């Protein structure tokens, strides 16, 4: 095996530094090349807000109903929590009764969160 011990730096640290510097150099080179060969055209229309090809009416900086954000956050919370079910489902045979109890507690917390959001009216469009 070839030793890369240079200036007293261990092999793993040296390889990490080389990998980091190589990554920075390649990204810098790619950005420089893209800036060098990319076409340039300056048009005031590029700075306008764009929504599905339909010209915007009024100001593009309008306020949205907080319900949209609340609904999206609730969706993300429950979506991410369902991802935690996959490892449990893969190892259910090995976990036994303790695994079933832990997932029952997990589901009960999910259901309580859903009931709370429902009672607060977070799932209703107004």
What does this structure look like?
The chain has 126 residues and is an all-alpha fold. The protein has 4 helices and no strands. It has helices at residues 11-37, 66-83, 85-90, 92-119. The mean pLDDT is 81.
Helix content: 55-70%
Largest sheet: none
> How much is the radius of gyration in Å?
27 Å
Structural class: mainly alpha
Low-confidence stretches: none
Overall residue-averaged pLDDT value:
81
Distance between the termini: 69 Å
Q: What spatial form do the alpha-carbon principal axes imply?
A: flat
- Please state roughly what percent of the residues sit in beta strands, choosing from under 5%, 5-15%, 15-25%, 25-35%, 35-45% or over 45%: under 5%
Could you provide a short overview of the structure?
This protein is mostly helical.
Key structural traits:
flat, 126 residues, 4 helices, 63% helix, single chain, mainly alpha
List the helices and strands and how they pair.
Layout: H1 11-37, H2 66-83, H3 85-90, H4 92-119
């Amino acid at each position: 095996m070839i030793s890369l011990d240079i200036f007293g730096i261990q092999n793993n640290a040296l390889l990490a530094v080389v990998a980091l510097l190589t990554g920075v150099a390649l990204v810098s080179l790619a950005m420089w090349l893209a800036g060098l060969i990319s076409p340039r055209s300056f048009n005031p229309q590029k700075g306008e807000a764009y929504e599905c090809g339909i010209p915007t009416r009024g100001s593009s900086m309008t306020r949205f109903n907080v319900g949209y954000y609340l609904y999206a956050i609730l969706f993300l919370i429950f979506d991410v929590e369902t991802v935690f079910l996959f490892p449990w489902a893969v190892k259910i045979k090995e976990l036994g009764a303790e695994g079933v109890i832990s997932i029952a507690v997990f589901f009960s917390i999910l259901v309580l969160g859903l009931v709370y959001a429902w009672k607060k009216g977070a799932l209703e469009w107004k």
